[in-house]
Design goal:
Length: about 270
């Protein structure tokens, strides 16, 4: 259900932004975004959570040490986070920087076409979310990383032949694959990490996964002015797929199952 709500906003956001850009212009899209943030502030202020149970009180540094031990003790966890450190930098740079550049300068795509492409990615995410409500992931990390490798397809198409329909189809497949990983990753984290340590481990996950993204935007901005765009994107697609595939060589990534098999009720092995 968390994935469903997230997916609904993922697809709704690009659609609204695309309509605003096409009808009123990019500046008004930023105004709508700012209004959304203003609305979010009082909504979040209404959230009430129970106080954390620190078991007698702990320091921040103690919590960091405990979280690091839990994080580093699970090979599947830090291997995938390391992979995403580079994969997310590629994603934000190639898709988030080079994509809009091509949309603005290549008539085969165009700004409106780019809006359709991003929306198609959101549709793929939403549709896969609905599918996963009915078909549980028995191997969450294996299928998840295979799904992430699909993002190499739109990257390659964007570089070779950025036609709207072809790129939208590729983005749709990549969105579906990304949702398989997103759901699988949440399952792996929630089912294999003790609940009282989950937030601390998730903090290391977020830090490692996103820390290099600003560098990705800088690097790809530089590459746009010094290299052939097609070569940059095709190479990025290959590297992205290789990184996703390499994680599957780790036994705990490939073999991880579910604590309880959703179909038969039998206990499954979950490597940690």
């Amino acid at each position: 259900m968390l994935s469903f709500v997230r997916s609904a906003t993922t697809i709704g956001g690009p659609i609204i932004a695309g309509i605003v850009v096409a009808t009123a212009g990019p500046a008004w899209a930023m105004v709508v975004q700012a209004i959304g943030w203003v609305i979010a502030i009082p909504v979040l202020a209404m959230v009430r959570l129970p106080p954390p149970d620190h078991g007698g009180g702990t320091t921040m540094f103690h919590d960091l040490r405990v979280g690091w031990r839990e994080f580093w003790s699970r090979t599947w966890l830090w291997v995938i986070v390391l992979a995403f450190m580079v994969m997310n930098a590629i994603h934000i740079g190639a898709w988030g920087v080079v994509g809009p550049y091509i949309a603005k300068n290549d008539e085969r795509l165009g700004i409106a076409g780019w809006g359709w492409v991003v929306s198609a990615e959101g549709v793929g995410i939403l549709l896969m979310t609905l599918i996963l409500l009915w078909f549980p992931l028995k191997r969450p990390l294996r299928y998840g990383m295979i799904g992430m490798a699909a993002f190499a397809i739109p990257l390659t198409v964007l570089g070779v032949h950025p036609a709207v329909v072809l790129l939208a189809i590729a983005a749709f497949l990549a969105g579906a694959g990304a949702e398989v990983f997103s759901t699988g990753w949440n399952l792996a984290m929630m089912e294999n990490i003790p609940g009282d340590k989950l937030s601390r481990v998730a903090s290391y996950d977020m830090l490692g996964s996103f820390v290099v993204m600003p560098i990705g935007t800088l690097v790809y901005g530089w590459l746009l002015t010094h290299s052939d765009v097609e070569t940059v994107l095709v190479t990025s697609g290959i590297l992205y797929a290789v990184l996703a595939a390499v994680t599957l060589l780790v036994p705990s990534v490939w073999r991880m199952g579910r604590p309880v098999d959703a179909l038969t009720g039998r206990t499954a092995l979950a490597d940690s």
